[in-house]
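Can you make up a protein sequence with its backbone structure tokens?

===
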Amino acid sequence: MRILAAMSGGVDSAVAAARAVDAGHEVVGVHLALSRAGGTLRTGSRGCCTIEDAMDARRVADKLGIPFYVWDFSERFRDDVIDDFVAEYQAGRTPNPCMRCNEKIKFAALLERALELGFDAVCTGHYAILRDGERGLELHRSSEEAKDQSYVLGVLTAEQLAHTYFPLGETPSKALVRAEAEARGFTVAKKPDSYDICFIPDGDTRGWLADKVGTAPGEILDREGAVVGSHDGAHAFTVGQRKGLRLGVPAPDGKPRFVLEVRPVTNTVVVGPKEALAIGELAGGRFTWAGAAPLDATTPFRCDVQVRAHADPVPAVAVVRDGELVVTPDDPLHGVAPGQTAVIYDHTRVIGQCTIDRTVSAVPAGV
């Protein structure tokens, strides 16, 4: 096959590209430039897709003897990921930019261009497994549970999975990947993994948002509507947050309070006890299926639901009702916010996902 290897400059994508070459594929490496800031550099584990990362990727490609290119996707990244991130926070939601990047950039814009240029598939260093099932290609969790990245790939459709290649999925551990990189002489063998939001490398999301949308003083309310504090902008808060609330009125029971709801229209934040973060139902109208859809999604079916990249899956019942994917966990989930992604599984197989539009508390107000 003709393979376009997406090379981030990290150890995973480097070894994935090398394995694609070893498998006899015709491989071309590409690094995505997602920022037009010419001086962008990595700081330890913070940031990705920087100048340093591009140079690391080029060194690996040179060692493998494959062609290498840098493609400027900065405008598409700004429109589909950064602007979406800001808009979601302004709407009182908690977005996952990594999900949006996978959906809109790595497996939409990049894959579209790859197919236009005659490539058969895009290769990445994600830890996930593709298997042939009775009804077509299936996406499964990787063999290394702690590193599994099937959650952030839950947005992929059947058509996208058909043109995707994950050489690392069956690898038992990240340590083995690093050892392989070192044996191959890759300088990225010990390079730290990136974390946090790549376009906010200093980790100060609140400050970054304030620069983008400004500040607007508002009230913090309890569940009964009483004013218990003030803030400089509702966009700076997310459901489940405890720190930085600056509450002027202590809770009657003296216990900490958490953000339960963000209301952007009135610029207010609602807080309450930790118990009120328990969610008994979640739903989203923007849902997709990873591979074949359930035979009858309008009939409730058993599944597991996962709401964060590193969260444990929870047994649940899912159903498509009134244009929404509605998921009811067997036990309440905690701290789930609109804007997050819920991925549903059948054991190790990814069934599909939805962006959460609404949640239903398992603990009514006043209880």
Notes: The domain at 278-361 is CATH 2.40.30.10 (Elongation Factor Tu (Ef-tu); domain 3).
